Amino acid sequence: MSASTHDLPLHSHCLAYLNRPIVVGLSGGRDSVALLHLLQQHHCELYAVHVHHGIRGAEADADADFCRKLCAELALPFEEHRINAPLLATENGQSLETAARLARRAILKEVATRHGAAIALAHHADDQAETVLFRLARGAAGPRGMEPVVRAEGCIWLRPLLDISRGQLTEWLTEQRLSWRDDSTNAVADVTRNRLRLEVIPALNRAMGRNVTPIINRSARLQSETLLALDFALAALPTEDPQGRLYLPFVLAQPLPLRKAILRRYLLRHEVPEVDEAMVLALDAMLPPDAPAARRSLPGGYTAIRRQKRLILEPPAPPAAH
What we know:
Elements: E1 22-25, H1 30-41, E2 46-52, H2 57-74, E3 78-82, H3 85-92, H4 96-115, E4 118-120, H5 125-137, E5 149-152, E6 155-158, H6 166-175, H7 192-208, H8 213-235, E7 246-247, H9 248-252, H10 256-269, H11 277-285, E8 295-297, E9 303-307, E10 310-314
Parallel strand pairs: 1-2, 1-4, 2-3, 4-6
Antiparallel strand pairs: 5-6, 7-10, 8-9, 9-10
């Protein structure tokens, strides 16, 4: 049965945000092209942003040209931003993939802030399964996937395609006679994400005798529901004082697993980046009044301070005026 417009419903959690301006990260690949068309069919106010990463030479130039022409045909505002991802990776001691992703997010945030918009990303169901496996292999607590709606870094990030597979997107684009660009690097198993997609998931499919992607994604959904339930339960506990600081006499009276959950929630609510178990345990060690350390630097420029039976998170200092 061929896919139709009605066969590709956007994630239900994202629908409430479609009445506001939306910035779409448009690479020219099938996923972002499908997202752009589907959002336009919902009559959204769209701003397309293409980031040229300064790699892949003429192929990347052709991607940018394709995106520019597509937006002209659709009468949509279009911005092209160029970065030098290899230079950024070298300067910041990051992998090329990480440097490109962080720079791309910074650009999308800037454009979204300018237009008062949410940001729509084209991650789909296959990306979700890869994310779950990637996080599990790195020691994440449970099969955590990407959320369809995230408020972070002062922006609303939407992933409307999380319930749709790559195959469904391809079938729908073909039926609609819509073209897209293929990134040749996606077919090379040279980075972790590519190896998961090209080697690991096909091997799991063969081992289980079925398509494991929807099964992995169901586990991610159940984990998300469990974490949401935990968040509601933690919110009902007297963990903070009226000023929003952690109240340590109550926290210290709890068993370690509950203390870890309280600390993790507190860090995430304050948008501290790169929260992991090592960070949580390090903070837990400084909570007792006789702990040798009463201050700890955290990623993103945050500082955790123990003071008068409270744990305080100081945000990063604002950039100096020029």
